[in-house]
Amino acid sequence: GAGVSQSPRYKVTKRGQDVALRCDPISGHVSLYWYRQALGQGPEFLTYFNYEAQQDKSGLPNDRFSAERPEGSISTLTIQRTEQRDSAMYRCASSPQTGARGEQYFGPGTRLTVT
Amino acid sequence: EDQVTQSPEALRLQEGESSSLNCSYTVSGLRGLFWYRQDPGKGPEFLFTLYSAGEEKEKERLKATLTKKESFLHITAPKPEDSATYLCAVPMAGNNRKLIWGLGTSLAVNP
Description:
The complex is a heterodimer.
Chain A: E1 5-7, E2 10-13, E3 19-24, E4 31-37, E5 44-50, E6 53-56, E7 65-68, E8 75-79, E9 88-95, E10 105-106, E11 110-114
Parallel strand pairs in A: 2-11
Antiparallel strand pairs in A: 1-3, 3-8, 4-5, 4-9, 5-6, 7-8, 9-10, 9-11
Chain B: E1 3-7, E2 10-14, E3 19-26, E4 33-38, E5 45-50, E6 56-59, E7 62-66, E8 70-75, E9 84-92, E10 95-101, E11 105-110
Parallel strand pairs in B: 2-11
Antiparallel strand pairs in B: 1-3, 3-8, 4-5, 4-9, 6-7, 7-8, 9-10, 9-11
């Protein structure tokens, strides 16, 4: 079946612009995670949804970052007034189980570059 | 402090040369340990979940084992296609919504 998809795969934006990153999880997966991953590092937790409810957003760096999953499926990570330090690979993962006890299936990521 | 440490950082093997990767953790009340494989430019790919000391899981040339303090990923007679970064992760104590990730072991298998 189809895996986790993310769009766009690459995004170049100018400093100060808003960007929206989309994640389409595996059908039926209840949990959805957003991560940021630097080269040579493990994924850095940003936020987590259980169905449509945002259960944990403690990893979001500041209030310019927000995420939603209004119908418990597709999720959008929005970064307002982007800064160069926001440049990174943003990854989405979904899981068939709630919490971190279940295996996570990752999408290919969105490479964000802020110029 | 909850922590996951992987060693070595990098490992280069000849095809057929078996070895082991280590993941040590300091998390109270372990609720699972996950191994992932990550190829360049791709997201991590789930390999195994281990839940209790003494548990073992196998997949092709890979076998993962778990003790109370660490996990090993044994690679038997590796092939060049096994070249990847191998990551391990554990749920954070007191917050089972988050995984603590190691930095990974970058494995290169030469033909």
